[in-house]
Amino acid sequence: MPTSAFLTDASVCIGCKACEVACKEWNHIPDDGFEWSGQSYDNTHALGASTWRHVLFLEEKQPMGPQLAGIEEPFRWQFLSDVCKHCENAGCLEACPTGAIVRTELESVFVQHDICNGCGYCVVSCPFGVVDKSHEVGTAFKCTFCYDRQRDGLMPACAKACPTQSIRFGELEELRREAHERVEKLQDRGYNDAQIYDPTGSSVGGTHAIFVILGQPEAYNFPPAPEVPTIHLKSAWGAALVSALVVVLVVCLAFAL
Amino acid sequence: MPGLGTSFGRGGATLGPSDLVNSDAILIMGSNMAENHPVGFQWVIEARERGATVIHVDPRFSRTSAMADIWAPLRAGSDILFLGGLIHYVLENKKDFREYVIHYTNASIILPEEFKDTEDLGGVFSGWDAKNRSYDSNAWLYGACVGGGRVAPKSAGRHSGRHSGHCKDGAGAAADLGNCECDPTLSHPRCVYQVLKKHYSRYTPELVERFCGVPRERFLKIAETFCSASGPEKTGAICYALGWTQQSKGPQIIRAAAILQLLLGNVGRPGGGILALRGHASIQGSTDIPTLYDILPGYLAMPNLGLDSKNLADYVATHRDPTGWWWNFDKYIVSLLKAYYGEEAKKENDWGFNWLPRVTGDHSHQGYFLEMLDGKVEGLFVMGQNPAVAGPNSRLERKALSKLKWLVVRDMVELETASFWYDSPEVERGELRPEEIATEVFLLPAAGHAEKDGCFTNTQRLLQWHQKAVDPPGDARSETWFMFHLGRRLKEKAKQDPRPRNAGLSALTWDYSVEGTMQEPKVEEVLQEINGYQVDDHTLVTGFTELKADGSTACGCWIYSGVFPRPGENRANQRNSQDLWGHGWGFAWPADRRILYNRASARPDGRPWSERKKLVWWDEQKKEWTGLDVPDFARTKAPNYQPPKHAEGDEALAGDKPFILHPDGTGWIFAPKGLADGPLPTHYEGLEAPVGNPLYPDRQSNPAAMRDERPENRYASSPDDRFPYVMSTYRLTEHHTSGAMSRMLPHLAELQPEFFCEISPELASERGIENGGWVTVMTPRGIVEARALVTRRMRPLLIDGKMVHQVGVPYHWGSRGLVKGDSANDLVAISEEPNVRIMEAKGILCDVSPGRRARGKAALDQLNAHLGRK
Amino acid sequence: MAANPKISEDRLDALREEAARTGNVQDHGIVPVGGPFPKPASAMSYHGNPVLKPPTWTWQVPLYFFIGGVAGISALIALVAHLFGNAGMLRTGLWIGFAGALISAPLLIADLGRPARFLNMLRVFKLRSAMSVGAWTLAGFSSAVGLAVVCHELILAGYGNDFLLVLVWAAEIFAALSGLILASYTSVLLGVTAIPVWSENRKLVPVVFLTGALGSAAAVLELLGFLVPVTQFIGIVAGAVEIVIAIMIELRGRYVDRPLREGTVGWLTRAGAALAGPASLLLRLFSGHSSVARYVAAVCFVIGALISRYAWIAAGRVSSRDPQALFRIQRPAPNGIGPARH
Description:
The complex is a heterotrimer of chains A (257), B (870) and C (342). With 257 residues, chain A is α+β, with helices and mostly antiparallel strands. Chain A is built from seven helices and ten strands. Chain A starts with a strand and ends with a helix. The chains are: A alpha+beta (257), B alpha/beta (870), C mainly alpha (342). At the A-C interface, helix 2, helix 3, strand 6, strand 9 and helix 7 of A face helix 2, helix 4, helix 5, helix 7 and helix 8 of C.
C-alpha cells in the first residue's frame, strides 16, 4: 500500500478554513468554545484534542517575493493549514504505554480511542505540540488521517474540501518531489524564502505531512529542528542508573559506618 | 446589473470564474473574491500560476490582497476616480484596442449638439430636471439618426414610480439607434471617443493619488500592467462585487469598468470581460426569476401604472426594440403570460396582461420598509432573509416590523427577524415593548438545501440542479411546497369569491403534480414550465428562438429556455464537463453560452483575433459560426452581412455587431439609454464623505440618488467633525450574510466568534485603542460595540493633504445564536441608488472610540450626546 | 556613555546577548559592520503562542512521584538493613514500601482520563516508553513488596520455613531493585519528553528525584522513631546534595531553566530546595543530638521534597508555554531544518 501523505502549500492557501470545518464535520469533533483571540483571523489558536486542522494567519513586515503590497514598508499576509505531522518516528507512538497509538497500514499514526486510558504521556512527548487529551472524554485525540475515509478509497476530508489545492493528498515520495519542484518554481519567481518543512534530517526522520512555507519555521511555530524525545532515553536512563548506584552506595555506607 | 446591461446588453457576468485561467491580467476591485468566492478563487490562483498578474484595489488588505501580485489601497467611495484614471491613461497613451473599438463599440457615434457633458455643466449632464431631481430619459439619445424614424416614447424616467433599473430597459432602448452618423477615425469633437476623452481629461494620476489615496507609482504600475493585457494576443478580466454595487453610484462604477474593457477590447474574449461576482448560491437566479418588484422573469419590465400599462400593445411598444434581439420582446411576454394563465390567457384579453400587478411607487426593500415604519404595510413574508440584521439601518427595520399586522418568517432557525418582538436591542433599550407590539408572528420551519429538489443559478449564469438527499425533519418544508400549497388554498378561497380582483388568481395555472407523504410539488415540472413548451401538445421547446407571440408557446423565463429541451433531459442536472468552460455541466443561460458576446472574440472578418485567444469563429465551408463555445450570435449570419433597409430585429444588425441585445449591436461606451443618472460614469462623492467633490464642488454626491432622510435615518455632513472616519461593511469567509446560518452552527461560530472591527495602528494610537480591546462605533443612525482588531492591513490615506482613517466593519452578528453581537447594519443608512435602489454601505462616515457602549437606553443617550456635538 | 566600562568576559557576553536579542548594540565604540542585524529566527514565533502542549497531569501525579520514591527506597533500605541484620528497619522499611505501593496505584489511576481502563497499561510492555516501564515496575514492586511483607510477617509470627526464607529474600531483592527503578524512572519519564526544561535537565532530574526519595525514606523512618546514625547519615548526604543541586540551577543561568528561577514556580522550586537543603541539613549538623531538631529536619526534608516534585511538574507547564524555550535549544541548521547539535 502506498504511503499516504499530505503536502500543504502556504503559497496557495487563501485562509478560508474549509479544511478545519470539513475535518470537524466529518469526524464529529466538538467546537473549542467561542473566544475571540485578536490574533489576526485565527480564533482556533492551535491544534489540539478537538482541532485537527488549524489555519495560521501570519501578518509580517516582510515582502512576499515580488508582490507589491506594503506602501512605506514591506508587508505580507500569509496562511497555512497545520496538521498532525504523522512522523516517521513519532514521539506520541513511542510514549504510549497502552499501545493505543499505532502505525496503520497507511503509515499514518493513529490513536485507538477505545484503548487509550488518558495517561497524557503522548501529550508531552509530541515535539510539535499536536496531540492532546480531551477534558470531556478523557482520552487523547489527533488527526486520524481520515483512516475511515482512506479505507473506503476516499481522500481525507480536508484535502477534499480545500478549494485551491493547497492541501494535496497522495503518495509520500511523489509529494516530496512535488514539493521540491514547487519550491524551485517559487524561488525562480522571486520568493526567496520559500522552503520545504520536512525534518528528514532529524531524529523524527521526516514526516508524512510536509509543508511548503515562506520564511522561517519558527514563524509558524514549527520547531526548526524537532527531535523525537526517545533519542534521550540512553542519557536519561544512564543518569538514572548512575544515581541509583550512588544511592545504593550511600545506603550501604550509612549502615556500614 | 444595469451597469453591465446598458454597456453590453445583458445584466450578467460576461464570463465564468473558470475562464479566468485564460486571463493575462485580472483586476479585482470592489470585491474580496478569495474571502467570498473561495471556490471560484481557485481559478485566479491557477491564472497566477500560468503567469497572469492579479491586481487588487481595495480599502483593506484582505485575504484577496494577500494572494494578489499588486495591491493598492483605495479610499472607499472613490472607485470612479480610479477607474476614470485608468480610462484617462488608456486614452492618453493610446492603449485602446483600436480595431475592436471602431467595429464593436459605439465610440465612433457622433452625439447631437444638444448633448452636454458634466464638464460643460459643472457636474450634471444635459436633461437634468432639478425640480424632480431626475434626468429626462431621452436626453442622451443619438439624436437625429439617419434612416431611423421612430423616437422612443417617454418611458419610466420621470415618474413617481421612478425608473426600473433592473429591466431590459437597463439593457437596451426602445428607440431606433441604428444607422447613426459616425466617425471611424474617432476624431470628430462630438464623437463618443472624444467626448469620453474630454469627460475624463481631469482624471489624472495626480488626482487619483490626491483623492483616492493610491500612490502615483503604484497607480501607474497597475495601469501599465492591466492595460497591456489587451490586443489580439492578450486579454484581461475585471472582477467586482458588492464593494462596487453597495454605493450610491454603483451601476456607474460598473459602467466605468465596462468602458475600460470595451476600450481594451476584452469583452467577449477568453480571459476577458467582466465577472460580476454575485454572492449567495442563487442570487443570479433570484434576479433571473426575480424576487425584485420591478421586473418579470427574463428581465422583462413589470408594467408601470400610467406609463406603459394601458394595454399589451402599449407595453410592447414601449419595450420592444425595432432592431437587435429585443425585437423579440413580444414573444417573451406573451409566452410568459401563457405560462402564468394557461387557457385563461387569450388574445381577446391581451393574454391576461391586465392581471399582472402594476408598479405604483417605490416597492423596493427600502421603499416598503419605510412605508412599513409609517404603518402602511399590513403583512410581510420573510423567506430566507434576515432584515433585522442584514437590512440597511437595521434599527429602523426592526422597528418597522413592529408596525405590521402579521409577519410570516420561514427559516431554519428562529432568527432575529422572527424574535425582534422580544429579543432585540430595541426591546433592551425600551424603544419597543413586547406587550405593545401587535404584530402576529408566524414562524414556520424551512427545509435546507439538501432536503429539497431545486436549482441554483450562480454567478456565471449557470443553472445547477440539486437533488433532495433526505426528507426535511418534522414540519419543515421547502419554499416550493409552501408557495404551491399557499397558492392552492388561496385559489380555492378565490373560487368562492368571484369578484374581479380574484380573476387573476383564479386564472393562474397551478397544476403541478405532487408526490410523497408531504405532497411535495415536482420541481422538475416547474423547470419544464420555465423552459417553455408548445401550448397545444406540451412539447418542450429547445430554446427561445421557438417562442412565438401568438399564444402558441408558453415559457416561464425566456433566458432559461433550453434548460429542459426534451423529456428526461434536465440539462441543469448534467454533470459531464467537457472542457474548461464546463459545457456538459449544468446549463448557462442563454442557450448554454458560457462567454457572452463571444462574436467579439473574432475579427470583423470572422477569423479569430489570434490562435492564443480564439473562441468562436466563422467557418467558411459550413457557413456558420463555430468554435469552443456556443456562439452568442445568429449561427448562420456571415461576418460581412449588411442589413437591408428597414430590416427588423436581429436581421437589422450587421455581421460584425456582437452586442446583439443592443439595438445598434455595439458595446456602449456611451450609454444613450438605460441609466437614471448619466450616460457616462462621473465621479461623485458618496452620500457622506470626508472631502468635497474635487471635480464638481457644487455636485457633492450623485444628484439622482435618494437619501430617504427622516429622523430615524439621518446623515452626517460631508465632512463631519463628529464622524471623521470612513467605514465599510463587508463579509468574512467564516460567516454567511446575516449570520443566521452560521452563528447557529458551532463549527462556524467558533471560527469568528465575536463582532470585531479592523483599525489601523495609527488610528488605534490616535484614539488609545488596543488590539483585543473594545471600541464603540457610531454613525448618525446607530451605535454598536465591537472588539478591536488593530492591524497593518488597515492604513490611513492621505486625501487632499489630510489623514483619512478607514475602518472595516463585518456585519454578521445579531442578538441570537451561539455567538452574539451588535449588528453593523444599525450604522448604515437607508439610501437608494437611482437605478437599482441599493443602499450605500461602503464609504460611510463614522466615529470610533475606545471602550464599550452604554447598555440599554443609555446607549441611545450616548449616541444622541455624540450627535449633539459640534 | 558609561565611564570606564569594565572590560571583561561578562561584558562581552552581555554585548552578545544584547546583539542576539535586539539586533543592535548601543555602546561607545561599537559600530558593527552590516548592522543593525536582523533578529535571529528564534526570536520570532506564531503570535507568541505556545508550540507544545502542557502536561495534563493533576495533583495526584507529583504526590505519586514522592510516595513512589519513598516506597521504593524504603524497600532498598529494608534489604540493606536485612543484610546488616537490622531487623527493626527491615520490618518498618518493608511496611513503608507496602503502604506506599498501596497508595500509589489509586493515585495514578485517579489521574487517568479514563480510570476504568487502567489495566490497559498492562496490554503491552514497551521498554522505550518510560511510562510503560513505570506501570510494570509499580505492578512488580507492589507484588514483590507485598509478598515480602506477608512472608516477613509470617516468619515473624512463627510460620517460617526454608521455602519462606528463600521467598522472602527473593521478594526483598526484587522489591529493592524494582524499588530503585520505581524511585528513578519518574525522572526518565520527565526527561524523555519534548518539554524543554525537562528534556534539558534529563541528567539532573534523576539526581533530584533519587536524592529526594532517599532523604524522604530516611526521614519517614526517623518520624517513625528511627533516630539512628543510619538515618542521620543519609539525611546529611541528601541535604548536602539538595544544596548543590539548587546552587547549580541558580548559577547555570540557562534560558531553558527560567521556570525554575523565575515567577511563582521559581519561588516554589526555591522553597522546596530550601526546606530539603539548608533547613534540614543545618538542623542536623548543629542540633543533631536533639530529637526535636531531628524530627523537624525530617519534616522539612519531606515537605521540601514533596514541594519540589510539584515545582518540577509546574515548571514543565510553564516551559511548554514558552516557544522561545523550545526554539533556542534547537539551534537550527543553515537551511532552517535539520538535526540539532546536542
